[in-house]
Amino acid sequence: MQTINEIKTYTFQAVIENSLMRFSERPCCNFTGETPLTYAEVNDKIVRVKKLLSSFCLKTGDRVVLYARNSPHWIIAYLAIVSCGLIAVPLLPDFSAEEVGRCIEHVETNIAFVEKKFLPKVNDSLENIIQLDDFEVLQRKDETYENEHLFLHHVSNEDDIASIIYTSGTTGRPKGVVLTNKNLVSNAIVGQYCYRVGKYDRFLSILPLAHVYEFTVGFMMPFLNGAHIVYLDGPPIASLLLPALQMVKPNIMLAVPLIMEKIYKSQILPELTKTEMRKKLMSIWLFRKIFCKIAGSKIKKALGGRIQFFGLGGSKLDTEIEAFLKCAGFPYAIGYGLTETAPLIAYSSPSKTKPGALGFMAPSVEGKLINVNNEGIGELVVKGINVMQGYYKDPERTQEAFTDDGFFRTGDLFSIEKNGRLTIRGRLKNMILNASGENIYPEDIEFVLNQSPLVSESLVVEDENSSLTALIKLNEEKLKKIAQEEQAKLNEESVKEKLTKVISNVGAGFSYNKEKLLNEIKFFVNSRVNARSKIHKVEIVDEFEKTASGKIKRYVYNLLEKTKKK
Q1: 3-state secondary structure of 399
Q2: Rounded to whole angstroms, how far apart are CA atoms 165 and 392?
Q3: Cα Rg of the chain (Å, integer)
C-alpha cells in the first residue's frame, strides 16, 4: 500500500518516479491478448511523448485534449501531458462532434491526442493533431519548436492543475471541472482504505478513463501500487468481454450498477424464480442462502473465477440486487463521489456493505448535512483535499457550488445513521415539491417501479398537469419469455401475432391491450408507495439517453415535460 510517505508529494510526477523505482519490471498495462508493457517501458514511452510535446509551441499551463478510448497509449499520453506541466483535457468517447468542438473552444486549445477512429470529429477544430494509436503527428501549425529543457526537467507542484474534466452529467450543459495534482493523487491514495491494491493484482478496465471514477480508482490506484491493468480492444460488449474475462481472470473490476442489474434481471432472477416450488423455497432463509450462494459462484466463474473486489459506482444500485449480492457472498463494494471531488467521498468495502445504505466518509473528507428536513434528510456538503478548484472560466457557477463556509454542495440528499453510515435519498435538483408543499423523491418511486418484472428501467417526472408520469423501458427478456410460454398455447397463430398479443396483454386477464400493460405497472407501483408519490400515467420509452456512467440523462426528459407544459 503506497502512501504519501512513499510518494513524498501529491503529484503525478512523484507517482511515476515511485512506480518506476519500485515496480520497474512488473507488468503495467496492455490490451487483452497482448504482451504487457512493464513500468519501465511505460516510463520510456512517457519520456518520448514529453519530447514530442516539446516540439510544439506550448508553455506551462497550456491545455491538451485527449480524445480516445481506453488504451496503454491513453495513460502514457496523460502522464506525459501532466508531468510536463501542461493540463490534460480528457473527453468521453461518446461525445458528439458538437460537444467535442464546444469543449475545445472553451479550453482555448489547438492541440490534441486523438484516436484514429475519432479524427473525423476533430479535424475542423484543431490545428495540431497527434494520432494516439502510434503518436504520429498528423497536423502541425508551426515549425518544430525545441522546448526540451522546459518540459523534460519540469518540476510539478501539488496545486498545479492536472485536468479539466468535462461531463454532461445528468444536468445538461457540460462543465469543465478543474482538478489539481493533489486532488487526484490524494484521492487515489485514500481509495486504498476501501481496498488495498498490491503489485500482484490484475484489473480489467471496461469504463472510460475520461470518467474520473475509472481514472482514479481503475487507473491511478493500480498504477500507484504496481498492479497490472488490461484493456479491452473495443467496447465492453458480450462477444469481447466474456472471452476477455476468461483470459485475463481479473481479481479487481469496476462497473456501473446498470451492468450488474442486467446480469441479475436477465440471468439470476429467472433462475431463482423459475418454478413455483423454488419461489416458495426462496422465502425460507436457509434455502434462499443456498440458492444465492450457487448463483453468486456462477457470477464469479463468469468473471474469470478470481474476482475479489467488484466496485460499483456512478449511480445507485437497486437494493434488491444488492441484497442478493450480499446473500451470495459476492465481493462487491459501493462507492459514492462526484467529478468535482476526484471522485471518492464515501465508500463501503466488501466486508462492510449494507443493502440500501452506502457507507462511511472517506478519510480526509469532512462532511455534514444542511437544510435537514423533519425526516432527517438534507443535502450533503463536503470539504477535503480532493475537492475541485472550481469550474473552468465560470466563477458564477463556482460560487454557487460552495457554501459560505467553504463546503462543496454535492446536490445529493442523504440521511446519516448514528454510526456515521450514509444513505443516499435522491438528487436535490430532482426533488419535486407538490401542491401541498410536500417533498417527493423520484428515485424512491423509480426504485419501486424497477421491482416490477415488466420494467427494465424507469424515470419519474412531473408532467404538464403537475402530476407524476413514469417513463419506463420494458423488460424485453421477460416479455420474450412470456411470449415463448404463450406460443405453446396459441399454436394456430403466427409468431408475429403471438408476440404482438403477448406484449400487449401482459396485464391481468390477458385482454390483449397495451393499455392493460401500462395499467398493470401503474397498479404495481401505486399499491406500494405513499399517497403523494402515486403516479398518474405510464409511458413507454424505447431507449433512455444516458451518460458514460450509465445514468439516465434526467434533464432531457424534464425538459420534454416542461416543453409540453408550454
Answers
A1: helix
A2: 9
A3: 25
